[in-house]
Write a structure and sequence with these properties.
Number of strands: 15
Radius of gyration: 17 Å
Number of domains: 2
Shape: globular
Low-confidence stretches: none
Number of helices: 6
Largest sheet: 5 strands, antiparallel
Strand order of the largest sheet: 1-2-3-7-6
CATH superfamily of the largest domain: ATP-grasp fold, B domain
Bound molecules: adenosine-5'-triphosphate, magnesium ion
Length: about 250
Amino acid sequence: MSVMSNPAYGEVLSEGKAKTLYITDDPQRLILHFRDDTTAFDGAKRASLSGKGTLNNRFNAFIMRHLEQAGVPTHFERLLNNQDSLVHRLDMLAVEFVVRNIAAGSLCKRLGFESGLELRPPLQELFLKDDERGDPLIYDQHAIRLGLATQEQLHRGAELALRVNELLMPLMADAGMLLVDYKLEFGMDDGGELLLGDEFTPDGCRLWDTKSRESLDKDRFRQGLGGVVESYRIAAKRLGVEGVVAEE
Ligand SMILES: Nc1ncnc2c1ncn2[C@@H]1O[C@H](COP(=O)(O)OP(=O)(O)OP(=O)(O)O)[C@@H](O)[C@H]1O
Ligand SMILES: [Mg+2]
């Protein structure tokens, strides 16, 4: 198969809360389909937001390309159409790597951090990917003893997660936004390398307007503020994400 030929869509490999993965005729490549579905609170709150799939697909492509160019290995290969991207198939670690620059969300609710408190150096956390258990915060040792990751994988994941922060904080700042926090997922490729997988979109990060500190991310959905897709569009437009046009 030549690199640029269009892959044939195969069966659904998995259907998550916001994306669907399809196998292709190439065993090493998957199609990542971004749906309009939106969920919060581990799936308890749901909605379909027209246009979100397209925005997130384009937003993710922009960020993944930026990271890749700066030397962060990712699963992203190319955009296929509005809602689909071609990615390298990974064996995903069932943990989530979170980096926080400013206290918000569960950190405030759970531990009493004052919302908006600056966290320097950034705070890194690990969560178990398990909706039934509410994606609990875990120690590295838990992940290792559960057989979910090795010490080396956790170390590399944490290192790459911080590198992502160094690259994306200034990118967002130049676009008038604060990168408050974000969640990353990593997986192993067939050559045994840990790559950034899944997505980087306003569904999985917090972005605040630098001046007003208004949310331009999924908190708008969680908090019922409205204008969810419109905010994602504003963030994308400020970054110069291709194919996104909107008036602010
Ligand atoms: N390159 C990849 N190879 C294999 N699986 C991947 C890859 N990139 C992402 N995934 C997985 O695809 C799924 C994406 O779907 P979605 O984000 O909608 O799931 P989700 O409902 O959030 O569920 P989960 O809690 O498993 O993330 C995730 O389980 C993610 O780990
Ligand atoms: Mg997910």
